[in-house]
User: Which sequence fits this backbone?
């Protein structure tokens, strides 16, 4: 964690984080949902907030969107403090809540116009914003349809449209792919990726695979505490393969480094029977990497004693972190 | 102010896409019509009786305002005790149940503006009902000679009573996500406002004056008689202000839970 402190945040010249959280706590009666959470998110980043159900994800989002007040700690969005100027903070954010709550008896255009006006747009500007956002999200032919008649996929799209209608700096989404079919999940993912660099996006989810494809970074939350803050390259973390090869280490190392997709090769320690251990780091999407590495080694006459994929993917990180602690309902 | 009107517009529109509003309005107008017909028939019978008895002083003291309009307005106020909770029960409770309350609370709108918007919408709806019930005194104007000022005062009183009921209904709706609980607790609170002075009427009790002051019919009765006093107007406005303040605190408290 390298989140700047409040003092650093306020220092002149310091590039403000889009979202900054420091020592955030939230108690629901006798139950503590957040236990001193601290993190910061840079403008334009797409960050996933991962955690099992009840880990405090929704509470974190609700504080950042101004729905709930924290018990203690700091929560700033675009430099605006959640406690000092809650309405100012809410003006920075577009929010897609879990379970897609919408007014079923309104038509799509009426609803989007209503939300745009609540977010401070004058009626004429709201009408333009509705046109723009409905075009972007391909809702044009549904503008006169009652929201209650829409499928879950289109409801999700309408929820996204209301979040984006005021062109907020920060988009916060709670479980955005819940209940969507694969095609709709891909559309949501593409939309989020298209916002990367333009808007700051914070997504809470318990679906790991989605985050690997959507986010630049994931934070893992358990029982109200941040367990890990993990940067992702696009497509997932680096692939790591460990090999035990008998042969001249320099030659083996050079040979492995020439295999397509390999980023680096490290010779770790001597193995059995004169074999050395090499750890190869490669592109995450390198196809059939293990087979090509094995082929290269054997093809050049070296003896391959062992080959194992030791990639630490998000799932492994998540499981190893969350397994350490007993689950408690929050 | 703009946010208040935006929310009021949406809420008002939502009343007319739900059957509840039409049912409430129809029941109110049907009952108003029935009361009017019954009271007018009674007025006619008593007049015939006075004529048969050649009771000239009795006939002179008997008028449409006292015999028809006053009881009609009192009856309609009691009907509103039952019907206004049906209008206000959804205001907050429905939004909480469906989760749309989260959309409102995460938009850059003050809680007070949300409360004000919902109040304006519900108040306009019940005032519309009362305006439509104004057809009955208009009928009297064509066929009789009632005092217009007294009628206006009475209808103004009924509108103030209805708006007070709306404010109380908003408060009970803000306390729960269950519409039935909201309606029943609103009904209970409104009925209490109606009967709060009963112990004082049954005999001399402590705080009798206070109980009478809190009694809504005491103030309403004055307006029905055509007396618009500052004391009564202050009572109604204070009741509205207190109920809206409590609603705002209740709505805001959701952020701290």
Assistant:
């Amino acid at each position: 964690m390298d989140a700047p402190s409040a003092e650093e945040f306020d220092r002149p010249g310091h590039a403000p984080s889009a979202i900054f959280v420091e020592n955030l706590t939230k108690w629901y009666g006798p139950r503590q949902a957040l236990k001193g959470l601290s993190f910061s998110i840079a403008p334009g980043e797409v960050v996933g907030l991962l955690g099992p159900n009840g880990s405090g994800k929704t509470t974190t989002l609700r504080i950042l969107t101004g729905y709930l007040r924290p018990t203690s700690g700091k929560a700033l969005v675009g430099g605006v403090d959640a406690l000092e100027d809650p309405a100012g903070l809410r003006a920075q954010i577009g929010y897609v809540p879990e379970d897609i709550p919408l007014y079923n008896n309104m038509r799509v255009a009426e609803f989007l116009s209503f939300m745009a006006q609540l977010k401070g747009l004058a009626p004429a500007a709201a009408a333009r914003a509705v046109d723009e956002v409905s075009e972007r999200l391909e809702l044009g032919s549904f503008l006169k349809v009652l929201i209650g008649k829409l499928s879950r996929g289109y409801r999700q799209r309408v929820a996204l449209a209301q979040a984006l209608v005021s062109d907020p700096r920060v988009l916060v989404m709670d479980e955005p792919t819940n209940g969507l079919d694969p095609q709709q999940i891909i559309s949501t993912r593409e939309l989020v990726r298209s916002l990367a660099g333009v808007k700051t996006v914070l997504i809470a989810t318990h679906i790991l695979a989605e985050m690997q494809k959507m986010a630049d970074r994931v934070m893992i939350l358990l029982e109200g505490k941040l367990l890990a803050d993990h940067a992702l390259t696009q497509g997932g973390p680096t692939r790591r393969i460990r090999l035990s090869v008998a042969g001249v280490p320099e030659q083996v190392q050079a040979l492995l480094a020439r295999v397509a997709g390999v980023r680096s090769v490290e010779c770790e320690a001597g193995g059995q029977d004169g074999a050395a251990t090499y750890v190869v780091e490669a592109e995450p999407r390198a196809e059939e990497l293990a087979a090509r590495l094995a082929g290269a080694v054997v093809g050049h006459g070296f003896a391959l004693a062992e080959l194992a994929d030791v990639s630490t993917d998000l799932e492994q990180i998540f499981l190893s972190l969350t397994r350490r602690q007993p689950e408690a309902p929050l | 102010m703009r946010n208040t009107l935006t929310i009021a517009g949406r809420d008002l529109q939502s009343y007319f896409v739900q059957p509840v509003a039409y049912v409430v309005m129809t029941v109110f107008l049907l009952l108003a019509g029935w009361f009017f017909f019954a009271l007018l028939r009674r007025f006619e019978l008593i007049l015939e009786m006075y004529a048969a008895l050649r009771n000239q002083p009795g006939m002179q003291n008997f008028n449409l305002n006292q015999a028809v309009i006053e009881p009609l307005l009192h009856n309609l106020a009691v009907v509103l005790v039952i019907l206004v909770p049906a209008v206000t029960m959804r205001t907050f409770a429905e939004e909480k149940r469906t989760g749309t309350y989260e959309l409102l609370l995460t938009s850059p709108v003050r809680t007070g503006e949300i409360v004000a918007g919902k109040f304006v919408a519900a108040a306009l709806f019940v005032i519309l009902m009362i305006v439509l019930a104004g057809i009955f005194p208009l009928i009297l104007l064509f066929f009789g000679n009632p005092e217009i000022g007294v009628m206006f005062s009475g209808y103004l009183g009924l509108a103030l009573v209805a708006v007070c009921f709306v404010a109380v209904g908003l408060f009970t709706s803000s306390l729960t996500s269950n519409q039935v609980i909201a309606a029943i607790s609103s009904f209970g609170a409104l009925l209490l406002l109606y009967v709060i002075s009963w112990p004082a009427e049954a005999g001399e009790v402590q705080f009798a004056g206070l109980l009478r002051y809190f009694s809504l019919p005491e103030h309403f009765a004055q307006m029905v008689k055509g007396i618009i006093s500052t004391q009564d107007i202050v009572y109604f406005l204070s009741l509205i202000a207190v109920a809206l303040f409590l609603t705002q605190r209740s709505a805001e408290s959701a952020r701290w839970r």
Summary: Chain B has 14 helices and no strands. The CA atoms of residues 105 and 111 of chain B lie 7 Å apart. The mean pLDDT of chain B is 90.
